[in-house]
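Bumping with the actual sequence this time:
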Amino acid sequence: MTLAQRNGLQMGVAWLICSASVPAWAQPDARADAPAVSAAPVVTVAAALAPAEAAAPAPTAGAPGMDLAEPQPLWRLDIDAPDGMRKLLRNYLDLARFQADEQVGGDQINLVELRRLVVSAPEQARSLIEAEGYFSAQITTRVADASDGQPMVVTLKVEPGPQTRVTKVQMIFEGELDNRLSSGDERAQDLVRALQEAWALPEGHVFKQAGWSAAKNAALAKLRAEGYPVASWSGTSVTVDADAQSAKLYLVADSGPAFFYGDVRVEGLKRQPASAVTNLAPFRRGAPYQEAQLVDLQDRIQKINLFDNVFVTTEVDPTSAAAVPVVVQVHELPLQQASVGVGISSDTGPRVSFEHLHRQPFDSNWQAKTKLQVGRDDSNLQLDLTSHPWPGQQRGLISGMLSYQIDNANAVTTSQRLRVGRLVERERLERTDYAEFQRAKVESDAGVTVSQASSIAGTSQWIFRNVDSQVLPTRGVTTSVSATVGHSFSTLESSGYFGRAYGRLTGYLPLPWNWYASGRGEWGQVIARSSVSVPDTLLFRAGGDESVRGYAYRSLGVESEGVVIGGRTLATSSLEMAHPLWKSAPNLWGAVFVDAGDAAADPAHLHIKLGYGAGLRWRSPVGPLKLDLAYGRDVQQLRLHFSVGISL
């Protein structure tokens, strides 16, 4: 550094000290919605200047002793603060950013700019650390002159002190919500209670500017979503006592008018009736507006497989709050669709399938889906007729199926089924009620009929899902329960009444250290006199990918005439632990598991079979692809299992 540069810096620092006697940070905070601080610590700015060195002539180019290396920086910044705070200041303090620019080859700042940055540094630092809840920080800025070839050092020291915590939260409401509260409206009271319970910055929490903004945004979003879509904050403030490290929050919300649903208008229809959309609405005209119901309506419309594009909007206009119109814009899918599929599984071997879907056969308000599957061990032909939505979120269904299945290479099961009923689809609950004709026959490879029966029965099935993802769940539960009452006939033994109950519970739970657990339990029971035959398709078997791994598909049951047929009792369970294999491939998991279960003629004859092993999971967009190597303890064999998707 030349003498002229050094003298200039000394004069600049002296000017800096004089001009910093009333620093800018000491002025009142003029930011909108900034906390009002009742007390603030003193911030000092000091400088330690080295004595001026004797004047010396500046070296000339090529003179002996001249340093031709890259010029050294004239100044540097040291931040003395806790680690987390030091990182914050390094990232956002102007002094630190200018120093970083110089280090990567940027232009050096001049003395005037350096003076400005040093003077403004305390104010900037205070703003940054106050946003993190530190309102009683001690901030000291010190400037040390250059010496012995070292640059001038600007030191910013921060002693943050304790963080400020929220000691009071007060919400006041204006507008229609206040009127409803005054009249004792129960829905308004529930909404206010929910807002207070969901407030994200409650008493006892550290006050941070980001948390304050997020809490206000979340509360206002909830208020708008629950019937007051034009609500706004008419006033919010924070009073901070820096000495007591306390913050008091005050909020005033103007709800505006309460909104109610009007008519549902459907746009973009060409062939499909408007009732296919309007019957899905989870609200009626005149019901209170709820944003979640509009999202629910859009999801329901997408699931009926009539449209490839759905957009649900409302016209949020205070002048039409009493009857807000709901506009549904749709684009219809093609009237017909066909596809061919090829697959393979360890349970039933390779297969090829052909599917055809008609979305309005014979100009009716029904969909017709035909599927033909031809496989090594399992072939079937199925026709499903599903109505367009009916009022009350219901749909009609008619289904028929012919099936041919080879079991364990020594028995063949043929069956026919006709089902008529209705389907009710809710957000988490799906209910199906139907009457059904079933006929099933089991023959040995020698052509001996081992089991044969037909039946007419009524069934009610309930499926409940509460998971974070229906395709790739990691948390939550799914439950499937069904009850059947019927009468059998055309049997090898006696005809008669029977009942059937089945339940399956699957749970998912994330664990520490990035482990994931899943468990399954199922129970089934057919109730009938021992002499009454029941179609084999209504009985139970175990073994296979989604049952007891380590055993062949449907190989656990009741042995008769040298072949395995269904039993009247079923009990299985499974426990699995999985973990991602590599951070670079988060969708590839390894898993270990243990399965247990059996199917028998009655509970007394259950002999629980055990299977355990390890496998791989690829979490694909259509569901997990599973590859398992399992050991069946009771058969003392290793078996490879693979499947795609989850089973409910």
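The tokens above came from a reply further down the thread. The domain at 265-332 is CATH 3.10.20.310 (Ubiquitin-like (UB roll)).
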